[in-house]
Amino acid sequence: MSRCLRLALTGLLLVITAGSVIAADVSPRDIRTQIDAVDKLLATDQPAEASAALADAITGLEAMAALPRPHVAFRFLVDRAERARRKLERAGVDVARLVIPSSQPPAAAAQPQNLAQPAAGGEAGPAVSFSRDVAPFLVSSCGRCHVAGRKGGFQMASHQQLMQSLKVSPGMGQQSELVEVILSGDMPPGGSVSPQQVKMLVTWIDSGAACDADPTADLMTVARAATAEPPPVVALPKPLPLKPGDVSFASDVVPILLAQCVNCHGQEDPEANYRMTSLESLIRGGRTGPAVVVGKSAESLLVKKLRGEGIEGQRMPLGKDPLPADQIALIARWIDQGARIDLRTPTTGLEEVAAAGRSQRLSDDELVRIRFAAGEKLWGRIIPDEPPVVEKRSDLCLISNLPPDRAEAVADTAASVADGLRDDLGLEDEPLVKGGIVIYGFRKTYDYAEIWQVVSGTDRPRGLMGHSGVTGDVAYAAFVVPTGDDSEEVTRLLLAEQITAAALASRGLPEWFCRSVGRAMAMREAPRSQLVQEWKRQASTAIGQLGSAQDFFAGHADPAASALAGGGFMATILGNAKLAQFLTAFDQGVPFEEAFTQAFRGSPAAAFRVWAVRNAGR
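Below the sequence we write its predicted structure tokens.
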């Protein structure tokens, strides 16, 4: 890149981000490097040096906070610094002197203009599309080295992989490393990037770096699709009960794939961008197109690769002995029978599908032992340096960092709540969940935040102090154990909410339904409590924070707002008999929408629309 072009690009960005330029001695990149050093120094047992690195970063943040206008990277860096401080504290370092500036610096006069929004008195320009604009640019400028290849250890074969690389910081175009290396002239080597292309890239990142295509799709495929005819839609088989002689995807096929294929075709950096992470991605295939032709194993690339017949390239699995002929025949028979999924949904992760298959084969006692052991192992990933206090109550296992007497009391309350839920659902002596539920109780919010990082790889959403789900063999409920005068009542409410949600999640029900019914059942536990009254007051306000009903049902809305609105919605239509009727039908194989409509006298969308219209703005 020529010096003149580089200066022109730099000038362009100074105009784009007017008011966001900071003093030369306050470098966001340097601050980020100092914060990143904390983890590395702690990992090599250098706590004093890690503390010093964070202190240097805080000095830079203080200088940034004193600027007339806040830098666009300020909040992002403050969040990173706060997480580093918590890690130091957990490592036993005295952090009293490490005071991180507020994420709202008093000197802030105004936020820099967001390029996604129109300037005062003007109109917004056309939106930048990842598939139409960004993907073709990245493929043409970086494709050989960083899309098809992995030069320098960096590959962006898909939007998802690009975002996981942290080379792009959503909302911070100028501070994103991808833009920085272009402006510096380091990339692309021997090539050139126009000011218009840089402006397009910065606009896309500043607007949130969203993806309007499949985020796991190969970038070259996305770029080609921008100018090509849309590919045929691959119809995904619907979950169906097995007939005698049918091959089980959950019990027969998935264990083979997990043992033989996912090391190369997992979520991270998959070969040929082919992820075997769900039925959907398994069928869709990767760079070479669909891997499964439903009903036709002989035409399916997956089977051809396993057999080593009629293919380009090598037989699979690469670097291993060929699969036994009976295992290949089993996979082929499953495809010929319609490539059906018998448990969960086409988008459910294969680990969870396999766990559901095990839960069907094993007895309750066998599954309890497996689930509780897996729960303790998961704690070792959440807070590895703090042995847990474990309290077991029949089909519940509380794993916490609470004082022993408090843990015992919480476990007793959880058992009482679970007994009440069994009665409500007419389960009598049956377990609430086959194999039981693992309950994680945390003393502090930052401890609870760790489970989000471990299970989902994301930061804890603001406003949530508890959630439930399934990961591998573990059906879990997690929450911050409250303190204060009303802690016993609030603990019971939170346990009712999360145990209910975990029981529903273990059945493979939609996340919005599990969360909403969990909140509604908690509201019925103590309807006059102060917390429940607050939930009721906020439910109508939360409707406006959802974005749309589609966002709510798809799980794209704010989780805290979804819990409030969903709890208010389900509380108005829920009844013990209706919920029991719904669960009986669903457990017998009736599809979710049909079972919901039968039990609650209307589809989820129609019922929610009626409730939202009646309650919005109250």
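The longest helix spans residues 404-424.
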